[in-house]
């Protein structure tokens, strides 16, 4: 599919792409991995999932016909400034970021003539990070959303779609604004709530906090799994999708207040309706094999 695939960042997602490319053999003839930290460079060499491991971003992208940004979205502008002069004509530039409006905002103005931007978001992940966290089946059976830019190259979009299909994913397309609203409710808001619940527990008096940790039920443990996610990545996601996230947070706040009123006034029917709706959503996810 590609002669030289360059991954800028080799955490969970980047290293998983490298692993599936190595396992299949038909995604790229050569896989180049770039990261800045010397200790991470050394670890990637030890793990052996890349053909070339390069500490200089400009050198890493040189001659690549596909470059995938796998770093926190807040770093995109700086990374793009460093690599843009070295991107080859005809290169496909894509990414794995969880926000898409900010990606187009930060990359578009620096995009060289003849380089094709295809924003993408694999809806897959775990709470783990770093090059050891990746695995070849991370994307299997999961959705990848493409947000093609207006006037973009259709052939480049199809190549990125085919890359993700070969990773085992189901590919969908939508505009960037719709994407950012969708992920605000299905991903970003749940993480915000998880971080907040864990923060609330941590602020409790010492005696109560110890009891929370000792007797934590599965519901609270699920929140702590989400809340253990990468700090830099989620800080950047919140700040770069703030409008959509705040809109969904406002709607959630209204709904939570309505449920609180029902609890206060003993409105059993309202409470039962909310629980049933939650169960229905869960069944829908199971039927779609997304749970």
Could you walk me through the main structural features you see in this protein, from its secondary elements to its overall organization?
With 291 residues, the protein is of the alpha/beta class. It has two domains: 2-174, 3-Layer(aba) Sandwich (Rossmann fold), CATH 3.40.50.720; 178-287, Orthogonal Bundle (6-phosphogluconate dehydrogenase C-terminal fold). It has twelve helices and nine strands. The strands form two sheets. A six-stranded parallel β-sheet has the order 3-2-1-4-5-6. Strands 7-8-9 form a three-stranded mixed β-sheet, covered by helices on one side. Helix 5 (101-107) links the parallel strand 5 and strand 6 (116-118). The protein is globular and about 65 Å long. The model has no long low-confidence stretch (mean pLDDT 95).
The low-confidence parts are none
The side-by-side strand order for the widest beta sheet comes to: 3-2-1-4-5-6
Radius of gyration: 21 Å
Overall shape: globular
**Quaternary state of the chains:** single chain
Second CATH tier, the architecture of the largest domain: 3-Layer(aba) Sandwich
Euclidean distance between termini CA atoms: 31 Å
Q: How many structural domains in the coordinates?
A: 2
By DSSP, the count of extended strands is 9
Let me know the CATH homologous superfamily of the largest domain.
NAD(P)-binding Rossmann-like Domain
Summarize the amount of helix as a percent range: 40-55%
Biggest sheet, in brief? Answer: 6 strands, parallel
CATH topology of the largest domain: Rossmann fold
Which structural class do you get from the secondary structure elements? alpha/beta
Strand percent estimate: 5-15%
Overall pLDDT = 95
What is the chain-wise order of helices and strands? EHEHEHEHEHEEEHEHHHHHH
Number of helices: 12
Text of the CATH class of the largest domain: Alpha Beta
């Amino acid at each position: 599919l590609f002669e030289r695939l360059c991954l800028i960042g080799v955490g969970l997602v980047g290293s998983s792409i490298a692993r599936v490319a190595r396992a299949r053999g038909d995604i790229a003839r050569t896989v180049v991995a770039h990261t800045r930290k010397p200790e991470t460079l050394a670890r990637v060499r030890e793990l052996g999932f890349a053909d070339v491991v390069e500490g200089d971003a400009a050198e890493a992208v040189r001659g690549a016909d596909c470059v995938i940004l796998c770093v926190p979205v807040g770093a995109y502008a700086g990374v793009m400034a460093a690599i843009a002069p070295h991107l080859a004509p005809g290169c496909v530039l894509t990414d794995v970021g969880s926000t898409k409006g900010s990606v187009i905002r930060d990359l578009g103005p620096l995009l060289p003539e003849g380089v094709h931007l295809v924003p993408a978001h694999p809806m897959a992940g775990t709470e783990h990070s770093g090059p050891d966290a990746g695995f070849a089946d991370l994307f299997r059976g999961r959705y990848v959303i493409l947000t093609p830019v207006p006037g973009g190259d259709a052939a480049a979009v199809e190549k990125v779609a085919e890359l993700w299909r070969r990773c085992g994913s189901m590919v969908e397309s939508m505009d960037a604004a719709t994407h950012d609203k969708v992920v605000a409710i299905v991903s970003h808001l749940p993480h915000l709530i998880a971080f907040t619940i864990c923060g609330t527990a941590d602020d409790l008096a010492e005696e109560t906090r110890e009891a929370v940790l000792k007797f934590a039920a599965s519901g609270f443990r699920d929140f702590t799994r989400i809340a253990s996610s990468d700090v830099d990545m989620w800080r950047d996601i919140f700040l770069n999708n703030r409008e959509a996230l705040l809109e969904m947070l406002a709607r959630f706040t209204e709904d939570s207040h309505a449920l609180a009123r029902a609890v206060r006034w003993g409105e059993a029917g309202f409470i039962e309706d909310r629980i049933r709706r939650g169960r229905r959503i869960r069944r829908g996810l199971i039927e779609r094999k997304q749970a």
